[in-house]
Amino acid sequence: MLEQKTLKNVAFVFPGQGSQYVGMGKEIVQEFPIAAKIFNEANTALEFDIQKLCFEGPEEELKKTPITQPAILTVSVALFEVLKEKGFYPEVAAGHSLGEYSALTAAGTIDFMDAVHLVHLRGKFMQSATPAGEGAMAAVLGMPFEKVLEITSYATSGIVSAANFNAPDQVVISGEARAVAEVGGECKKEGAKRVVPLAVSAPFHCSLMQPAAEKLQAELAKIKFKDAAFPVVANVTGEYVSRADEIKQKLVEQVTGAVLWQQSVENMVSHGIHTFVEVGPKRVLSGLIKRISPQVKILNVEDMASLNETLAVLGG
Q1: Per-residue pLDDT averaged across 92-99, rounded?
Q2: pLDDT tens digits for 41-83?
């Protein structure tokens, strides 16, 4: 391993659910023993073959929340370990929802095998918090978030709230299916460009997830957390956190709380971050960051081509 150096003004960001695809991580594992080691540890911790599911699918299985969450975490951490082996450390890290666990694992707060087991359970808890078909999520595009919040506050057909503040023109709402449909319809009437129902198995990041939050809190209590080696931006506040006790509490709040992604990115930029490296499958966060802060440099690492390109830019 090369001597590690902190990349000044560089943030590593880690994707959440929805970025998965069959074949993710395969090239990196074939090329780097450290990545293969992470997948082996994941298989041991989970007691099923997550590597086979990532590399070969089937896609329908990979889309199931209790599988998706540990799969994306494993790929993301394997990619981070390769960057670390090359000597690169970020000044700060952040992750979108599930991705916060990848960021915290990278920062040394949670042991990887604990993290992968934990997000598998988190996926199960979130999946079972509401009966199938009763919850829904939808992305509202092209409407200021203040207006979305106003419309959401008037909903009469059930529980609904803002779940993700993803970018200036994208807010995700979550809740009971009837209420999400009501708010989506009102947003369209009031001038939203589009309202896109999301293919999710549960209404994440709203009060319907309270049973999952309580179960997760009990599991988190069993795990030893360490202070972060570099700051991580908490989803629920958009602020830098480093202390183990604070991080643990924020992870509980995150299950029912909104993901403040736009605010998180803006805060990192205000701290001097000018380069973001998305570490994990696809480039969902790269697209959002570009819409939040068009002036920043955005790189990604998900396969050999993107790794080599990013290392060239970072100086590897």
Answers
A1: 98
A2: 999 999 999 999 999 999 999 999 999 999 999 999 999 999 9
Question: Which helix (DSSP H) or strand (DSSP E) does residue 135 occupy?
Answer: strand 135-141
The number of residues making up the chain comes to 316
Element (H, E) at 13: strand 5-14
Based on its alpha-carbon atoms, the radius of gyration of the chain, rounded to whole angstroms, reads 19
Q: Is pLDDT of 1 > 90?
A: no
Among candidates 97, 167, 98, which has minimal Cα distance to 139? Answer: 167
Q: Could you tell me if residue 30 is left (phi over 0), alpha (psi between -120 and 50 degrees) or otherwise beta?
A: alpha
pTM for the whole structure: 0.97
Rounded to an integer, the average pLDDT of 303-315 is 96
For residue 144, cis peptide bond before it (omega within 30 degrees of 0):
no
Catalytic residues: 97, 205
For 37-85, the three-class secondary structure string (H helix, E strand, C coil) is HHHHHHHHHHCCCHHHHHHHCCHHHHCCHHHHHHHHHHHHHHHHHHHHH
Name all domains of the chain by residue range, CATH numbers in brackets.
5-129+208-314 (3.40.366.10), 135-200 (3.30.70.250)
- State the pLDDT at residue 292: 98
Phi, then psi, of 240 in degrees rounded to 5:
-70, 135
